[in-house]
Amino acid sequence: MRKVHLASLRVAAIAAAAMFAVTSCSTGGGSSSEEEGGGGGALPPNASSQQLRDHSISSTKGKKAAFVPVGLGTPLTEEWNRQLKRGFEAAGMEYVVRDPNWDTARQAEAVQSLINEKPDVLVVHNFDVQVLAKLIQQAEEAGIYVIQINMVSNYKSDAFVGADTIELGRRMATDIVKECGEATSTSHKVQIVQGDATSGFTLDVMAGAKEVFDQHPDIKIVSTQAANWDRTKAHDITATVIQQHPDLCASWGFWDQMQYGAATAIKEAGKIGQVKVFTSDHSAITCQALRDGLFFQSYGYSVPTQGTDIVSIAKYLLQSGKEPGSARIADFTPLVKIDRSNWDQPNMCYDGRTDGLTVS
Amino acid sequence: MTASVTSRRPGPRRPPERNVLENETLGTRLHYLRRKIALQQVFAELFEKRWMEPAIPLTLLVGVVVFFSVATPGFATPENLLSSAAELAELSLVCIGMAVVMISGGIDLSVGSMFGLCNILMILLITLGGVPVPLALLLTLFAGAILGGVNGGIVAYLKARPFLTTLVTLIVFRGVLNLLDLNFSAQTATVFVLDPMWEWLGTGKVAGIPFSFVTLVVVLLIGHVLLSRSRIGWHITAVGASRRAARHAGIKVERVLLLCYVISGALCALAGIFYAARLSSASARVGEGLELNVLTAVILGGISLSGGKGTVWRAFIGAATISLLGKGLLLMNVGGEVLQTALAAVLIVAVGLDIKWGKNRGKAIQKTYVNPTLLRYRPAPDVRRGSGSAYEVNDRLLGAEAIGVGEVEGPEDVVLDSQGRLYCGTRQGWILRFSGRDFEHKEIFARIGGHPLGLGFDAEENLVVCVGGMGLYAVSPDGTPRKLSDETNRDWTRLRDDSRLRLADDLDITPDGKIYFSEATTRFGMADWILDGIEGRPNGRLLCYDPATGTTRTVIRDLVFPNGICSCHDGESLLIAQTWLCRILRYYHSGPNKGRLEIFMDNFPGYLDNINRSSDGGYWIALNGMRSPAYDLAMRMPSFRRRMMKRIPRDEWLYPSMNHGCVVKVSEAGDVLDTYWDPGGEAHATITSMREHDGYLYIGGLENNRVGRIKLSGSGAAQVDNRRPQSSARPVSVN
């Protein structure tokens, strides 16, 4: 599914997802007549506008959507939460968020309790590829549409919305090779600061990076450690690495919030001019760090639109009348490179609080 | 003096359990009623219960369940409870491990790391290692035990402090876990294990209940038996309560400590296995901060941080409270930070309560245990010389011969056998026998224990003894003691279990061979019976032991300090002397008046002890102390006595006077015939018993160092066997 990377434009991605779903629907023959809740299945092509409207509204009104992030309180998860809340509530749906506060066991509990409550749509942000795998399967069997966000599980559900992490890994690695590869007069030493080692994000980015680095044996990965998305851990790991390798060329961390700690450690060591700090995500801290010369480069993945994409896909699933688990689609949001040259352009970074949209 | 009811109809109606004075108004009666109710007593007796210790955590648990059932719609559903059970099981297993360590006086902060490490180990074994599930299970359990063994070894044999040791191992184990995570987790992440047993471990159900919860129940039962019923369990508790005392008692302290930590490690492993099977998450985060939740749960359950106290159930109650609290807040969509804060608040409250409660519970019970009630007396008869009263002081005991001076301590009662040998109990728990012409030959007839009080011979010449603190015993003529009874039917209207006999006091044997005996009070023991006098409540009872069936039953309950028991000359009634009420009841146990209870005599000038028959058809009554106007007044003022107990030290309290008494002889009709005094109280101050035999009166005292004897003159010396009522068929033996 990951290879269905069609375009870097969001609209195209949604269109692709919709097409994929419609195609499978039509090839599925009679399966579309199976009604799911108030979904009502397919409308005839000549249905009136009123009928279309009724069908759409009745499919979503009074339904329930739930969101389980790994933990609220970060710009990333807050932004998703804000968009989801606005989108689902505007569609007349009930929306709840269960916050496990960075505790794997509690995340599993939260999903388990939601399976018991049977919402219509469940949005999960997987801690790692395993922890929710069985539960997502159970949720689908219980008739819940499950949409995964940004960090994928081993069990692929109805839809995945997030960065194309394999491609992200490839691009980032390519950029690093450009800055630290054999063509440069650097030490070619690169430090990698992972998130949780078993996180889908980490695994996929590493897979993409491996493809590139395997072709460039000149790049020396001097340290690959998991800072578990934690700024302090990233700081402490990097402070040690920079001592061991004062000639480090690049430090690559998988999340801006975490990597800010690594950048601080490098700055404290007085090496911020020499060591190039790479990261991904584009919350306000990225733009600040680029402005201050802490970060060298980041990849944004259109976080503010991911929430609305999820709402769109949820609406599609609810109206399609398909069985939960009958589709496996992915919506990869566009990757945008942000560096010291373009960070100050409008809407490069999000702050988790404001955007141009208003609640209807 | 007889105040018997005129109606001859035998009925259950009994005189009020207080001194009824003339012209009692409604107000007085209400006053009595108000003083009869003692909420403090209910409180004290409730909190004395051992099962009250986990009552507060249990109430909290019930409160949490009820609150969330009402406040959160999804909480009380079977699905939620079942899925909660699986999560609870893992937490509880770790909590039980922590509890065992804490009962042994230690603490195990490394539980979270051991849990996480065993989780990842189990996953590595079955994914990358390809080890069969049962073997992997055993290996992981073993690994858990080894981790615990590391803790235990350092704590027990290197004598390191548990807190620091396990704090260090927390970091070390977590470091190992991080290492494994970094190197192997990514590879495990994409492996799907399809072993059905593995599936079943995670999601299997026994009778609809998650397998992990069933395992928890089994562990709880085994843990309960092990901790409370087995030698090793008692050793663990002993080591936790006082390590030094345990060592002195010969317990191998090091081995016990090591075992506790090994148990903790193995239980963490078991929990980790279930977690692994349920979620297959080889994340380094697993178990992070778990030690805090576990500690909160265990302390909340009421397991003391100072060791030596706790059960597995309390650990479970604490775990369930924490787990359900978390679940409930989650279902209410409360944020994660709020949950942490709530847990922290609960921990603070729990630790605070643990300290306050543990420290002050005993004190609170002690302060509220004695509950004075209202008692009134008519003005006491004058006993002064020349007063002309029947109780007038005289010098009749001055010339009493002393038997066994300095050789006997506390002969509460004395009795003589058919050969004229004298028997008395002592505070050492012995029965002494004096024989010879002048009782110069002393021997220890039997060693029973407790404090032998009332004595009596049955038809087979067995000496029946009421032993304070033990119950009713019989000593055969060759000196072998055996227990007749130490329990009766329990009074279910009382909170305190009163089935055990605490203070069997005096006895007498009726012609049909039944042994009637009094239990002076069920609330106080031999050491503090005098507190019953400050309280003045009906705490005693009349019991009957039937040798034919070997059973004891309560005949009359709620009596104010029944002391002396004497079978009347008619053979169908008993006299019951009530110390604090200064009156004597007559109870008909058979005959036409069967079941009738009436007042035989009242308003004595002193506090009554034993009663015995005299040879001329009357009765001897021992007064162990004299009433005083001050104490009579104090008995009318319960709140004064309560204040006294709260405000001033115990040795300055006003007690019933127990330092001077006399012997009173009364007729069958209840008229005072004679008194016998030792005015200076030099030889016989407190008199608790007297026994007429062969023209002599033998005198005993609970605090005395001798048995006294005086020769009776005149009609009092008629040679009648006074040990048994006249209706007895036993032949009279005269020495």
From TrEMBL, chain B:
- For this entry, the protein name equals ABC transporter permease
Its annotated compartments are: Cell membrane
Query: Is the Zinc-finger keyword given for this protein?
Result: no
Q: What's in the keyword line of the UniProt record?
A: Cell membrane, Membrane, Transmembrane, Transmembrane helix
Sequence segments annotated as region (Disordered): 716-735
Q: How does it sit in the membrane?
A: Multi-pass membrane protein
**Which residues lie in Polar residues bias regions?**
725-735
Stored Pfam families: BPD_transp_2 (PF02653), SSL_N (PF20067), Str_synth (PF03088)
- Is Transmembrane among the key words of this record? yes
Single Gene Ontology MF annotation: transmembrane transporter activity
The protein's superkingdom reads: Bacteria
Q: Which GO terms describe its cellular component?
A: plasma membrane
TM ranges are 55-76, 88-107, 114-131, 137-158, 163-186, 206-227, 256-277, 289-305, 338-357
Q: Which organism is it from?
A: Prauserella muralis
Query: Where is this protein primarily located?
Result: membrane
